[in-house]
Amino acid sequence: MHTDNADINIYGDSIRKERYIFMVKVILVDDERFASDELEYFLKKYNDIKIVAVYNDPITALEEAKGLKFDAAFLDIDMPVVNGLNMARELLEFNPDTGIIFVTGHDDYAVKAFDLNAIDYILKPIEKDRLDRAVDRLLKSDFKSAGTRDAILDKLNRIDKNIKQDSERIAAYDDEEINLIKMSEVFYFESQLGKTIIVTSNGKFKTKETLETLESKLNDFGFFRCHRSYLVNLRYVTKISPMFNNNYVIKQEEVEYDIPVSRNRIKELKQILGIN
Question: Which long-range contacts (CB under 8 A, 24 or more apart) does 18-22 make?
C-alpha cells in the first residue's frame, strides 16, 4: 500500500476543458500491482482527481479506509478473500456517500446493469476514452443525494446475480440430447401444457423442472416470476409497457415476444428494477 498526501501534479495541459469546483478524493484497490500502478498513472493526469491511497490487499484497504477521507473508490471485482462487490458493500456501511467505480476484467455482458450516477465500471485493459467518461461521470456525481447508498446496494445485488448466472448451468433437452445451458443465456422460462420451455439465445429447449421449482432455485440468480406461466431473466429486461386494464408486458432485448406481467406482480417487479 502507498499513500499520496501531497497535491497531484498537473501533467501539461488539462485533459478536461471543464473545471469542477471541488477535488474528488479517491482510493484504488486491486490485488494486482501492475493493474493498480497503471490505473494510478492514468488517474494522476486528471486535475480534479486526488489519489489518497492505493492498496493491493483488500483486507488492509478495509482496515485503513475507515481512517481516510475519500469520495470514491476504484475497485477490482476479482480479488481474493474479499471481492470488489463485497468490498463496496463494506465501504458503504461506514461511508454511505462513497462513489463506486469497478475496474474489472469481466465482460460488460455481466456488469452492464450499471446505470447509476454514483456507480460505474471500466473494463480491463483500460481504454482512455472509457476512463474519461467514468471520471467525468464521477466528477458530476452527487454522492450525498438522498437514497444513494440504498440505490447502490440494490444495484450491487443485481450485478452479483448477473455474475452468478455466468457460472450456473441448467440441464435442457433437445430430442434425445442433454444440453447444459448457461443461465446467462436464458431469456425466460415458459410453462406450456404442463411442460417447461427454456427460451435462449440459441433456440428453445425443454427441461424436466417445473416453473415453481425453478422459481425457488433461481431467486438469487436474477430471475423473476412475472406471471403464472413465465419466469424471466431480469438482466434482459429493457422496457415495461402498460396495456389495457392496468396490465403490463415486459420487453427483452433480442426477444420479439412481449411477456405478460400479472397485475399482482407489477409492484414487486418495479421495486426490484428500481422503478418509481
Answer: 19/47, 19/48, 20/48, 20/139, 20/140, 22/48
